Amino acid sequence: MKILLADDEKPLLNFLARGLRAEGYECTCLNELHEVLPFIKKHMPPVVVLDRLFGSQDSLSIIDSIKTLPSPPMVLMLTALDEVSERVKGLEMGADDYLCKPFDFDELLARISALRRRMSAPQQVNQNNIKMGGLELALQERIVFLNGEELALTKIEFELLLYFAENQNKVLSRERILSRIWQTYSDPNTNIIDVYVSRLRKKLEREPQLSIQTLRGNGYRLALK
Fold this sequence. Notes:
- The protein has eight helices and 13 strands.
- The chain is of the alpha/beta class and 225 residues long.
- The strands form four sheets. The protein has a five-stranded parallel sheet, with helices on both faces.
- β6 (74-79), α4 and β7 (97-100) form a beta-alpha-beta unit.
- The N and C termini lie far apart (45 Å).
C-alpha cells in the first residue's frame, strides 16, 4: 500500500520511511506543506501521515481540501501539540486519526493498520433510501438530504449517520459503534466517538425533530423528538 509521509522534520521523515518500507509499504516523503495537496490530487495515496505544524504553517488548513476530493485518503495526523483541545480540533476538522509525538513506532503501525481495515470494510448494499423526519439518506449515491437540501458529510460522518439511521430509535453502544465504523474491538482511549457525534449534531441542527441522544453508560441513539 502507498503512503504519503509529510513532515518538516527530515530525520523523523527518513526514520518513518525506512521503518514503513521495511514493513512492506511504499512511501513517498514530502517536507513542504504546499507540496502535499497537489501530490494527493495527482497520485491519490490511500493513506497520508501528516505532521500538524510545518514551521508556522498549520496543516489543518488543507484538511478540508483533502477530504472534499473525489477519493480522499485517510489522514493520520502527527503532532507535538498534545492538549486534548488540539486533538479534538484536528478530528473535528476531518483528520481520521491523531498521534502525538513522541510516539512508539509499533503504535504508528497499529494506527495505519486500523485505517487500512476501515478502508477495506465491506459496505452494506441497499437499494432503498432511508427516511427519518426531514432526513433522507440516498444509499446508492451516498448522499444525505436534510429538509430537501444536500448535507455535506465526510466519509466517516456518513457511515456513522447511516448506522444510526439503520437503527433509528435503538441504543447503540460505544463498542458496537467502534466495531462498525472504526473496525476495532477495543477502546482507543480517545473521545473520537463523541467528536463525530458532536459534528453530526451540529449538522442536523436544521431539523429540530431529530436528536442524537447520549444515554450515559449505554451509548447513543438517533430519535425523532
